[in-house]
């Protein structure tokens, strides 16, 4: 019996029980599609996150209040304690004490309601310095950023994010318009170009005001000098590490802390953020893929189940084939191929559906799905192997049937 | 070319005139030229189901030579099918020896037994045992599939065998589209397509009406006239009388072994 002949016989068996075969194939299909999608979603999210973090700008160091327990940037109580002040930011701006730091942008963020012509919109109002645009690598679509003079004078000027402008005025070129924040009228001097969103916030829905203006008019009280984050720009890539050392030493000194372990702030670099986020998403991907893999296992058990049914249903046929001269290996091969056909069909269909879903879903769910050819190839391979592995037992059982017992069965 | 023609079997009046027309068969060991093709020596079979033992064959001795047409005759439950399963290498003895073409089949492994069944034996069962999903010619070619015959030749030989049994116009009919008699003739075509040494038929007419019975028995006559060894199992005397030799079985033992005078 040639392979072709075995294949023909097996195909006839699969084909003659079309519905049953389809349902079995469906089990494998779902498993394979699920694996391709979860792996793709995991990889896609990792890429999205690192792209977003990279968009913060290179050479960037981020100083946040609160202590850290590890150098990878996993921060305990991030942003909860107000240990950083504008004084820290001013100290870091010193070209003498911190020669490798070229830009300092402290941010004090408060969620406030903005009003323009009876339209209300709540957004994050950030107080910062003129260095903000260069440190955060933002450009303006309309108008200009506030000037050093305006900052020094605590002028009531505001730069809006593109979405904020849209929400308040229904248009983006709103330079010269007025916005009321906390009962004080601000003049819009500029609108930022769009930048998308990062993992935690929408970068286009913001209102930027001079730090002093925010401190005196919007925050007030004891926390008026507090900053939530200080963004530092190293003079160049190669100076990033020196900038880190300088910032660390300066802040420890300013806060009168002798040991790095007791630091009440955390300095993290973009790289650290990327690797932290990537690690988190990797773990998540592995976990989800495990779950998807389980569904594949269930599909495999379905193949085994159907193959056992197929064998017991055709016991008489097996007996007849043996009486006509079929050796055990030919019977085993016939059933193994049958199982492999089920597995392979499920694998190919699952891969097709997985890839189609990977190409269409991102438009709906808004995150990328990466289809890796390796994952697709592997899934199809795994599907065949599942068919074979779960087919071995039923096929061996068929091959071992004594011809006379098989012929006698009803 | 065929040793049978050079081997005048004395025990029975086999006509050997047309044997030379048969193609030569691989199963013709020189050593057996003089010996019987089938030989049961003190053959016993005890079925064991759980703690219950049943002795279905009580040590029988039987020799059948190439070209013979033997009926194994006996009442229901006498052990006829047991004999047929042993002769067809579908089951094994629990005592004694079965020599097929001079070889003790106990020495053969599963794969060799499969090859023996494929090359030496053509089965005809009471219940036809056709695969209902396949057309007649596909059923008939099955032994050739396992005999490594190329596809085109299989189709040719299957149609020739079906023509031989008078079903040349039914090649593509499925068993369900045929009468019992026609189905049994398909089964006979399947039994002879591989040109086996012998045809084993277990109650082949048990499920047939009298007309179909006559058709099938006539086929056996013709096949035997062409030199084919036939072992026909039946409990009907009328059917047994078509054979040239009748072996009477009762309670697992041979009670009479005679040349059919009729
Ligand atoms: N697999 C088996 N297990 C136990 N007893 C069996 C089995 N097959 C046949 N027998 C018994 O052996 C005896 C002979 O059976 P069988 O050869 O089929 O008889 P026949 O074909 O002459 O009717 C019967 O009594 C039957 O019940
Ligand atoms: Mg019987």
TrEMBL record, chain A:
MacB-like periplasmic core domain sequence ranges: 21-249
Topological category with respect to the lipid bilayer: Multi-pass membrane protein
Superkingdom of source: Bacteria
Keywords: Cell membrane, Membrane, Transmembrane, Transmembrane helix
Domain ABC3 transporter permease C-terminal: from-to ranges: 291-403
InterPro entries: ABC3_permease_C, MacB_PCD, Macrolide_Exporter_MacB
Principal location class: membrane
A matching Pfam family: FtsX
Localisation: Cell membrane
Residues annotated as transmembrane: 21-43, 286-311, 339-365, 371-393
Alphabetical list of PANTHER family matching this protein: ABC TRANSPORTER PERMEASE YTRF, MEMBRANE COMPONENT OF TRANSPORTER-RELATED
Assigned protein family: Belongs to the ABC-4 integral membrane protein family.
Protein name, UniProt field: ABC transporter permease
Organism: Cryobacterium breve
Lineage: Bacteria, Bacillati, Actinomycetota, Actinomycetes, Micrococcales
Automatic annotation (TrEMBL), chain B:
Native organism: Cryobacterium breve
SMART domains, sorted: AAA
Single GO MF annotation: ATP binding
Entries under InterPro entries matching the protein: AAA+_ATPase, ABC_transporter-like_ATP-bd, ABC_transporter-like_CS, ABC_transpr_LolD-like, MacB-like_ATP-bd, P-loop_NTPase
Alphabetic keyword roster: ATP-binding, Nucleotide-binding, Transport
Domain (ABC transporter): residue spans on this chain: 38-261
CDD domains in the record: ABC_MJ0796_LolCDE_FtsE (cd03255)
RNA-binding in keyword set: no
Presence of the UniProt keyword Ribonucleoprotein in the record: no
Any Pfam family hit: ABC_tran
Name assigned to this protein: ABC transporter ATP-binding protein
SUPFAM superfamilies, A to Z: P-loop containing nucleoside triphosphate hydrolases (SSF52540)
């Amino acid at each position: 019996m040639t392979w072709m002949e075995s294949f023909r016989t097996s195909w006839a068996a699969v084909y003659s029980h079309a519905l049953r075969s389809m349902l079995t194939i469906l089990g494998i299909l779902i498993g394979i599609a699920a694996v391709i999608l979860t792996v793709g979603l995991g990889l896609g999210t990792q890429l999205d996150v690192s792209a977003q973090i990279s968009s913060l700008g290179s050479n960037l160091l981020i100083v946040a209040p609160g202590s850290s327990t590890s150098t990878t940037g996993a921060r305990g109580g991030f942003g909860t304690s107000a240990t950083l002040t504008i004084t820290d930011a001013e100290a870091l701006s010193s070209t003498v004490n911190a020669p490798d730091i070229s830009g300092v942008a402290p941010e004090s963020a408060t969620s406030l309601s903005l009003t323009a012509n009876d339209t209300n919109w709540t957004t994050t109002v950030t107080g910062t310095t003129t260095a903000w645009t260069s440190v955060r690598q933002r450009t303006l679509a309309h108008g200009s950023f506030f000037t050093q003079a305006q900052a020094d004078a605590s002028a009531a000027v505001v730069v809006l994010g593109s979405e904020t402008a849209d929400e308040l005025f229904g248009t983006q070129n709103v330079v010269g318009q007025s916005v009321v924040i906390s009962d004080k009228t601000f003049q819009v001097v500029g609108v930022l170009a769009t930048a998308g969103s990062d993992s935690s916030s929408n970068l286009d829905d913001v209102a930027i005001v001079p730090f002093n203006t925010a401190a005196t008019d919007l925050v007030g009280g004891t926390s008026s000098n507090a900053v939530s984050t200080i963004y530092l720009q190293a003079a160049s890539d190669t100076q990033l590490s020196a900038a880190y050392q300088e910032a660390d030493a300066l802040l420890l000194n300013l806060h009168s802390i002798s040991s790095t372990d007791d630091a009440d702030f955390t300095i993290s670099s973009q790289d650290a953020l990327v690797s932290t986020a990537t690690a988190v998403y990797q773990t998540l991907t592995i976990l989800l893929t495990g779950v998807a893999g389980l569904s594949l296992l269930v599909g495999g058990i379905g193949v085994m189940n159907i193959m056992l049914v197929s064998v017991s249903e055709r016991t008489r046929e097996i007996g007849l084939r043996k009486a006509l001269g079929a050796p055990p290996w030919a019977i085993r091969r016939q059933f193994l191929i049958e199982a492999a056909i089920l597995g392979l069909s499920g694998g190919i269909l699952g891969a097709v559906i997985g890839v189609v879903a990977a190409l269409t879903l991102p438009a709906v769910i808004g995150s990328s799905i990466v289809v890796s050819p390796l994952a697709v190839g592997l899934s199809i391979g795994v599907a065949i192997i599942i068919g074979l592995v779960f087919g071995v037992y039923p096929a061996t059982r068929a091959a071992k049937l004594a011809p006379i017992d098989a012929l006698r069965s009803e | 070319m065929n040793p049978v023609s050079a081997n005048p079997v004395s025990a029975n009046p086999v006509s050997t005139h047309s044997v030379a027309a048969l193609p030569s068969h691989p199963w013709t060991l020189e050593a057996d030229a003089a010996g019987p093709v089938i030989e049961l020596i003190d053959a016993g079979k005890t079925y064991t189901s759980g703690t219950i033992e049943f002795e279905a064959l009580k040590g029988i001795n039987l020799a059948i030579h190439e070209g013979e047409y033997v009926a194994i005759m006996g009442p229901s439950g006498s052990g006829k099918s047991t004999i047929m399963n042993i002769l067809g290498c579908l089951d094994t003895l629990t005592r004694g020896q079965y020599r097929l073409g001079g070889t003790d089949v106990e020495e053969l492994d599963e794969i060799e037994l499969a090859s023996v069944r494929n090359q030496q034996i053509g089965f005809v069962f009471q219940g036809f045992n056709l695969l209902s999903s396949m057309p007649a010619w596909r059923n008939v070619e099955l032994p050739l599939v396992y005999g490594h015959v190329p596809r085109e030749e299989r189709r040719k030989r299957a149609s020739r065998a079906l023509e031989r049994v008078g079903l040349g116009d039914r090649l593509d009919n499925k068993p369900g589209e045929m009468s019992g008699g026609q189905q049994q003739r398909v089964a006979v075509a399947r039994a002879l397509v591989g040109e086996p040494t012998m045809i084993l038929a277990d109650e082949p007419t048990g499920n047939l009406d009298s007309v179909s019975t006559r058709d099938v028995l006539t086929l056996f006559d013709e096949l035997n006239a062409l030199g084919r060894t036939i072992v026909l199992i039946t409990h009907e005397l009328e059917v047994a009388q078509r054979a040239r030799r009748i072996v009477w079985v009762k309670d697992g033992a041979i009670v009479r072994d005679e040349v059919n005078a009729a």
